[in-house]
Amino acid sequence: MRRRFALDRHAPNSYKPATAAFLRIDDGEGIKREAEKNGFVNLFEEGAAVLGRRDRECLCPEAYRWCFTEFLAMDVRILKVGLICFGLAAMLALQTVLWGQAPPQDPSQGAGPAAGNDGLPPVPQGLDVQTRGPVHEAFATPAAEPAPTQLVPKEPPKPLQEMPPEEKPEGNVAWIGGYWSYDEERKDFLWVSGTWRTPPPGKRWVAGYWRPEGDQWQWVPGMWAKSENEQNTAHEMTYMPAPPAPPAVAPPAQPPTPDAFYVPGAWGWHNAGYVMEGGNQVWHEAGYAWTAGYWARVQPGYVWVQAHYRWTPSGYVYIPGYWDLAVGRRGMLYTPVYVDMAVVGPGYVYTPAYAVPETVVVDSMFIRPAYCHYYYGDYYGPAYGPMGFEACIVYSRSHYDAVFVYERWDHRADPRWESVQFDICIGRGAGRYPCPPRAFVGVGVGVGVGGYGMAVVVAPSRLAAARGTRMERLDMRARMEHRERAEAIRHVAMERSRNEVAGIPKQPRAATLHVPPTAHANVASTAHAPVHPAQPAHPQTSLLKRPTIPQKSQQKNGEHKQEPGGGK
Fold first, then answer.
1. Residue 38 to residues 16, 28, 237: CA-CA distances in angstroms?
2. Confidence (pTM)
3. Each residue of 231-249: pLDDT tens digit?
4. If DSSP states are collapsed to H, E and C, what string results for 49-90?
5. Which residues of 219-253 are buried (b: 16+ CB within 10 A; e: fewer)?
6. Residue pLDDT, tens place only, 277-324
7. What does the alpha-carbon distance between residue 199 and residue 540 come to, in Å, rounded to a whole number?
């Protein structure tokens, strides 16, 4: 009797489709030969053992056929499960590889935290996290020529309720709350998130504010004011007439030492009286006088902010030059956000959570004097020049910019650094190099978007680790204390808005503001203990003496202006 047992190569139970065929079942030896031919010897032996027969020869053909088919079916079921698991694992591994790939970086990239979403929380509904926008003016503010800021056509919303994050950078940092900024492209306001800030040595923050001007609105910028006494909140603010435009002067010569930088000249006000000129006493009316620039030495970890004026509706406030910390040591900068109040609701309390590395800020830093702000991100291209944006690397070639003066010195080991940065800036505007991403995608931000090789948004803990520092956990009580201190700083802005309404004076006019200490008074401020072994000296005493005979200048009202000798 001849029976046939069929193994179809396309059937689901086929163990070896490549060699499966019709198996002719004649007797035990026939089955064994077919099993050996197709690689089923083990199954054959196991089948014999199950039947409890030691002698395979005494197995009848029907028994062999049963053993073979049953164990073949069992092994195929096990193999199917294994193949499915292997396929799923292979797909998962392939997806991980594809998601983790990143295109090559452009030449501008330097050290900084790698891209990724480690520690980044999900974005709440109603928030639109930005990868570009204004830099909080307490974190970095330009010292450009003073001028009234640009008017905007809309009234800003009420200030957003803001709670400091659960972690802060180590040290005596202060939480300075956020504020609204107008975006001309979207014709709407975005929220400039609050910032953790280590104050400059001996300084307090005087916050800016919005004021109505007819049917339009105008931002009045904030400033770092001198702190005479930590316990005394009274601060005298002197409002000056508009200073003249700076005179045309020849560019400075080569620096006398490798660690020297040039501080430009400035206008200074002097009262009426006699001054010495050529060995004689000469009477001068009250007014402005120009003092020439001078060379100074770099202090590692600090930037020198040159003397400048800040416009207000009541006049121009003179801010003497001062040392500030390098950008990477100032604290923690957070991304701006758009807030949909219809979604978040009127009682919404915002907590910043997305940090901006200083490497990204410096890499794509713009100045906008008409708004008295720095910006960072993609503002490249011909559309932004008419809006008042200028790349800082370009601006710093014809103007003093404290951040880039220090960056040049910090990259002194690379003599091509400045020219490379300039070429990259021009190349981005022309489309030759990738620009920073504009969309916040939450995973690998910055990498894989146009080839830009740095993470533009990171978790604060990752940024602190990249700096070699750490974040400190705050309980609710500590967070509320920081919030109350930030509210006290905001009240200074409200006080300014009530007082600064008198118009530009013809003579200096003083007023008193109540400015609380920016940092905690019960903690020794790290800002007063620089990392450099010696307290940074005023630049005028570092290398060269400043001229003692000021140059005269004639203003439109006919008054002669002069700065007192050695005025700071």
1. 8, 15, 97
2. 0.73
3. 778 888 999 999 999 999 8
4. HHCCCCCHHHCCHHHHHHHHHHHHHHHHHHHHHHHHHHHHHH
5. bbbbbbbebeeeeebebebebbbbbbeeeeeeeee
6. 888 898 888 999 999 999 999 999 999 999 999 999 999 999 999 999
7. 23
